[in-house]
Task: inverse folding
């Protein structure tokens, strides 16, 4: 039986390629905690998570002082058991973003290691449902952009074969959001999907009001219309509109998704592998959603979500927001608007370790002696 012998921790900071502004915040930076796990057979696996500008050092401190020391000597194949044990170890700080982001970096590293030892790509090891998935883009739909820029970007991506675009909403008056969506719809026609995202910015009454407008534009979904912890209001909104309600990026546990599904408060689950705590809970959420006949369309992290959406049968879309190009040696494969998962064993991400080393802001090594 192999045992975990060493863990290397790093954190890099990735600057977004474009300005990203939504109704409540700006995405100014991607702090990226990275975990590399070595076992006694010589196998290596790397995982990561992210923030949008704050909290990264706190994630790293939890990894260094609490979580990774508990991995030394463990059997890396027992991924579910390790995940549960680490969750119990952090009982006083769970459920929450810092703990979930730390767990995710470890869990994705363990899956990378396991898949490499099995000589399988993650998308096959976790289910192998499909070998490609359609893309929609968010990069040209940010709230600060002018109306013409939204339409121009959607047209450009449509010409590249993309199947949809997301437009951020939450301007001061409903008429502003309506004008922006109308311009995009006029540009791309009826066959192109338009998604909308309010980033938790509305009250229930305002969300109901805006949903009526969204119905007129035939949008694919209404994402995070309300604060993510308000299950009852999401259920009420869902009863008032035919527009699918999408939630999940701001949820951090299997139980939170269970509550939404039981309450019929959402019809699209956007489970984020980093924020839910890793691949292990991500797959559980996806399979639970399938039991409710609910679609999975994950948030962000396209390079890591690509093999996962190809692994399960109820995932329809992958969100296009490129962020790892500067620290990888090969970009995600795209053909005619579809993302194609790698056949290489592991996560399918080719890290550029020379660049990562140069960008590293925090670096620690955890061994039995430490």
Result:
């Amino acid at each position: 039986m192999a045992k975990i012998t060493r863990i290397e921790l790093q954190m890099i900071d990735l600057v977004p390629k474009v300005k990203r502004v939504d109704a409540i915040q700006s995405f100014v930076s991607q702090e990226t905690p990275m975990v590399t796990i070595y076992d006694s057979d010589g196998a290596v696996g790397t995982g990561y998570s992210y923030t949008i500008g704050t909290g990264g050092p706190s994630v790293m401190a939890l990894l260094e002082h609490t979580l990774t020391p508990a991995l030394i000597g463990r059997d890396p194949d027992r991924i579910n058991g390790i995940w549960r044990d680490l969750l119990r170890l952090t009982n006083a700080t769970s459920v929450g973003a810092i703990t979930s982001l730390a767990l995710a970096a470890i869990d994705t590293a363990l899956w990378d290691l396991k898949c490499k030892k099995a000589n399988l790509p993650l998308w096959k090891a976790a289910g192998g449902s499909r070998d490609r998935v359609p893309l929609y883009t968010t990069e040209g739909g940010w709230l600060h952009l002018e109306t013409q820029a939204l339409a121009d970007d959607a047209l450009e991506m449509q010409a590249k074969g993309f199947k949809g675009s997301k437009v951020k909403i939450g301007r001061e008056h409903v008429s502003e959001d309506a004008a922006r969506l109308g311009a995009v719809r006029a540009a791309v026609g009826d066959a192109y999907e338009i998604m909308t995202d309010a980033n938790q910015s509305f009250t229930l009454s305002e969300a109901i009001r805006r949903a009526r407008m969204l119905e007129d534009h035939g949008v694919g979904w209404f994402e995070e219309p309300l604060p993510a912890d308000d299950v009852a209001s999401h259920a009420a909104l869902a009863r008032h509109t035919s527009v699918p309600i999408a939630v999940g990026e701001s949820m951090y546990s299997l139980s939170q998704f269970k509550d939404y599904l039981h309450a019929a408060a959402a019809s699209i689950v956007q489970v984020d592998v980093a924020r839910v705590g890793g691949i292990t809970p991500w797959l559980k959420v996806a399979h639970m959603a399938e039991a409710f006949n609910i679609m999975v369309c994950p948030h962000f992290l396209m390079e890591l979500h690509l093999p996962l959406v190809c692994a399960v049968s109820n995932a329809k879309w992958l969100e296009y927001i490129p962020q790892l190009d500067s620290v990888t040696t090969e970009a995600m494969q795209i053909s005619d608007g579809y993302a194609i998962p790698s056949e290489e064993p592991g996560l399918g991400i080719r890290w550029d370790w020379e660049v990562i080393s140069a960008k590293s802001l925090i670096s620690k090594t955890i061994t039995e002696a430490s």
User: Anything to note?
Assistant: The longest strand covers residues 4-14. The longest helix spans residues 97-118.
